[in-house]
Amino acid sequence: MAQTQKKGNNGCLWLIVAGFFTIFAFVFLNQFLGITSTFALLTALVFSIIVTSKILGVSNKKSIFSTSIVLFLFFFTFKFFIGFIAQLIDADFSEDLTFSKNEQVKKTTILEATDSVVVYQSVRQWTDNFGNDYTGDLTIRERDFITLASQPLAYRFNSNNNYWGGLYDYLEKRDGPSLDLVMNMFQTIHESKQLNEMEFAEMVVTCIQDIPYSFVFSEACEPAEFYEESIARILRKCPECCIGNQPYGIQTPVAFLQNLKGDCDTRTVLIYTILKHFNYDVAILNSDFYLHSILGLNIPATGTYKIYNGKKYMLWETTAKYYAAGALPVSFNDVTHWNIVLTSK
């Protein structure tokens, strides 16, 4: 007795299953094999139709054609939407590359006891990730800056320790005592707002996140065309967003507060120094894979974390606004690529 041919499913189920396999194949081809988006999509469509036909039966040509068109248009629209959002983010980022007039560092004087003291000061106004507004002055004494700037960094690498962790620890101990005016400002906010442990950490980190990004190079800064596109794109919009000839490619905490030009580890070292002063269990994490530095905080929270010596450190991005503890950009959120190089406890 002859068997009847298996009939195809031409309804929504066929489209849903084909869409699932299209997404799966597209991600694999584009993200893992590096195949261009258009070719990866076409290949994924063919793959999904073949696999769906094997599972649900062969559909008629008209249904296959209409399904392919629907899926192609969906992916094309999705790609256009993502590109549009990326442009908006890029536009917002370019607006954050420069300071308002009030936020720029100014040389002024303050009164300490009966003495008039020359300081570098930036009046900061920022909002944390939960909509709370803050105002404070990041202030350092001119004499502290001159004294520390005139002393060459005397860091000597100890082969028994990790290189970057040893450097960051040295900078924290070297510059920490000269940040007393900054510590006093944060303490004043802490007391006036009656912040809890998490709220205070959020307030400190977002204050530094709010500072526009600058590159810090160990060599002299070059014109934008001398760098890879990710760097050149920023320098074309903001040529002054770069400071060069800095030992180890990092600004010390006091130097950073004197000009507010800081990259990733310039920021993590400053925040680490502040939070350590306030007795937080804080860490700095580096990634050779991502060429980046982030903060870790041992505090009750949810999100992405790294376990170290039995403790859970919530990972925290410091170079861009709107990232809370435990939230990392998808471009570098693989925890296996992050290593803790320094902890405060």
Automatic annotation (TrEMBL):
Protein name: Transglutaminase-like domain-containing protein
Sorted UniProt keywords: Membrane, Transmembrane, Transmembrane helix
Keyword Transmembrane part of the UniProt annotation: yes
Organism of provenance: Jejudonia soesokkakensis
Regions crossing the membrane: 12-33, 39-57, 69-89
